[in-house]
Description:
The protein has strands at residues 3-7, 10-12, 18-25, 34-40, 44-51, 57-59, 67-72, 77-82, 92-105, 108-113, 117-121. The strands form two sheets. Strands 2, 4, 5, 6, 9, 10 and 11 form a seven-stranded mixed beta sheet that branches. Helices cover 0% and strands 58% of the residues. The protein is mainly β. The protein is globular, with a radius of gyration of 13 Å.
Amino acid sequence: xxxxxxxxxxxxxxxxxxxxxxxxxxxxxxxxxxxxxxxxxxxxxxxxxxxxxxxxxxxxxxxxxxxxxxxxxxxxxxxxxxxxxxxxxxxxxxxxxxxxxxxxxxxxxxxxxxxxxxxxxxx
Length: 123
C-alpha cells in the first residue's frame, strides 16, 4: 500500500526557515516524480515545487530562489527546505506522487497524497 507521511510544519517568524519532510512507503520513491503543493484560501491547491524521477527540479512562483526540493532515495524521503518565509507562505503543505490518474493540479495528476502539514508564518 502506498503511503506518504508529511511532517515538519510549524510556527516561524517572517524571514525564518523550515524543512518539511515526506516519508514514502509502498513504492520506489526514486521511480516517480513528486511535488510539494499547498492549499491557500481563495486560490485552492497550487504547486510549489517538483522533483522528477531523474532528480531534475522545478519551482513555481514565489518558491523560486527561496525553496529547495530534494529527495533521499535511500530513506524514501522527500524534503522541502524553505527559507525567507513570509506570511503568504502560511498554508497547509502537501506532498504528492505523480501518477496517470488522481487529482489534477496545473495539468499534472497526483495519485497519492500525504496528509497536510501546517506552516504558519507570523510575528
